[in-house]
Amino acid sequence: MSHHKKYSDATKSVHAGMIENEHLAVVTPIYQTSTFKFRNADHGAALFAGNEEGFIYTRMGNPTVKGLENAVAELEGGHKGLACASGMAAIHTVFGAYLSQGDHVVCSEAVYGPTNTLLSEVFSRFGVKASFVDTTDLKAVENAVRPETKMIYVETPGNPTLCVTDLAGAAKIARDNRALFVVDNTFASPILQKPFLFGADIIVHSMTKFLNGHADVVGGMIVVKNEEQFKRLRRTLNLFGGVLDPMNAFLVHRGIKSLSMRMEKHCQNAQKIAEFLEKHPKVEHVAYPGLPSHPQHELAKKQMSGFGGMISFEVKGGLEGGKVLMDNVQLCNLAVSLGGVETLIQHPASMTHAIMPKEIRLKAHITDGLVRLSVGVENADELIEDLDQALNKISV
Ligand code: LCS
User: Fold this and answer.
1) Dist CA 59 CA 243 (whole Å)
2) 255 CA distance to ligand 1 centroid (A)?
C-alpha cells in the first residue's frame, strides 16, 4: 500500500504492512525459518554492519514479523514497530532499554497486575524505584515526579478499573521533566486511541488482546517514533530475546485485517451492555468510559474515538454476588484475557490482579467485589439475556 497516510484506519487495517514477495502473494507468506542465507561473505558482513537491508536470523528480524510490525506502526502513526513474544516481553524490553540503577518511574496504579509487579519486584532489585499513583489526577503525577524520574508509564483506559488518564496532560509533565512518556494502548487499540497524537514517546501493546482478537495467540508490540529509539529497542530486544515467531506474527496480522470492524462492534455491544448493567437492580456500580456517569467521560470523548469493549462493575453482595454471577453465566466464558471475539468474564482481585499486594490493589480501587467483562462481538441482546439470568440468581 503506497501513500498510506491518506487512508482511513478501516483501509489500513486491511492493507497495512504487506511485504513485497517474489510470487506476489496477496497475504504475507509465513517465513518459517530461523536463519537466512548470505549471497557471499561480504554480503553477510554488510548485513551485520547494517550497511545493507536484509534478514540474518529470526531473532534479529523476519519478513513475516516485519509485515506485522509495519502494520501496527502504521495504525499507530509511529515510525516502526518491534514485535515481542508477549505484552510483558514488550513492557520489560522498554524498561530494560531505558531504566538504569537509580532511575525512578511514575506508573499508573491501575495497570495490569504483572506490570506493577515487574517494577516493584524485579526492576527494584536492579535499583529502579517506582511510584504508583492515580494518573487520572495530574497533580498526583506532578507530585510524584523526582529529579531522577526517567519515565512516566500510563495505561489508559486502565486495567481493570477503566479509569482514563489525560494523555496530553501526562505527556506535558513528562516533557517538562525530560522523562520518557510510555503508554500501554492495549485496551483502546490504535483504532480508538492514538497516543502519539497526544505526546506519547513509546507505545506498548499486548497483541494477545484486541489486535489479534481471536484468543489464539500471545504477543506484544512496541511502537516507536524515531530511528534512535528503534535502534536502542531493537538491540535490547535482540539481547533479551523475547521476539515473536513468524507463525504467531502471521496470525496476528490476519486478525488485524478485521480490527477496525471488530472495534466498532465491541464498542456498540459494550455501550448497550453497560447501559443495561447500570439499570439492573442487582448491580451496584458500573465503570465504562462511554457512560455519562464515568468520572472521565468527557476526557474519554476528547482523546478516544470510541469507548472500547471493556466494562468493570460491582454487583450487590460484593464478592459473593460476583461469584454467583460468574458461576451462572452460560454464553459468557469465565476466563481471563480480553479483547477477543468471544465475551469473557473474570474476577480481578483473585485472578488478573491477584499478584499485586492487597493494599496497592485496593488503593487502585480494584476491590474484592469488582468483576471485569470483555465484551465480544456476539449478539448484544443474547449477551444481555445471559447476564440478566445470572444476575437474577444473586440473592440480596
Ligand atoms: N498490558 C495490558 C493492559 C494487559 O491487559 C496485559 C495482559 C498485558 C499488558 C500483558 O500482556 P501479555 O503478556 O499477557 O500478552 N492482560 C491480561 C488480562 O487482563 N487478563 O489476562 C492477561
Assistant:
1) 6
2) 17
- The residue nearest atom 18 of ligand 1, judged by CA position, is 337
- Find the mean pLDDT for residues 34-42: 98
161 lines ligand 1 (CB under 6 A): no
* Lowest-pLDDT choice from 5-14, 218-227, 260-269: 5-14
- Catalytic option among 31, 98, 103, 112: 112
CATH node for 9-256: 3.40.640.10
Q: How far is the CA of 351 from the centre of ligand 1 (A)?
A: 12
The reported pLDDT for the residue numbered 22 is 85
CA–centroid distance, 337 to ligand 1, in Å, is 7
Instruction: From the candidates 184, 201, 245, 386, give the one annotated as an active-site residue.
Output: 184
Cα distance between residue 200 and residue 171, in whole Å: 6
Side chain identity, residue 171: A
105 lines ligand 1 (CB under 6 A): no
pLDDT digits (tens, 9 = 90+) for 106-156: 999 999 999 999 999 999 999 999 999 999 999 999 999 999 999 999 999
* In the chain, where the domains are located: 9-256, 259-391
Please give the Cα distance from 8 to 286 (Å, whole number): 32
Annotated catalytic residue within 12, 129, 194, 209: 209
| φ, ψ of residue 201 in degrees (nearest 5) | -95, -40
Distance CA 352, CA 114 (A): 8
Q: What is the CATH code of the structural domain delimited by 259-391?
A: 3.90.1150.10
Mutational test site, ligand 1, from 208, 343, 345, 371, max ligand atoms within 8 Å of CB: 208
Q: Is residue 59 flagged as an active site residue?
A: yes
Pairing of strands 149-155, 129-133: unpaired
Element containing residue 130 per DSSP (H, E): strand 129-133
Paired strand residues for 202:
182, 224
Element (H, E) at 49: helix 41-49
Residue 294 pLDDT more than 50? yes
Structural contact between residues 36 and 30, judged by C-beta atoms closer than 8 angstroms: no
Q: What is the mean pLDDT of residues 278-285?
A: 97
Active site residue 388: no
Report the length, in residues, of the chain: 396
Ligand 1 proximity of 86 Cβ (cutoff 6 Å): yes
Predicted TM-score (pTM) of the model is 0.97
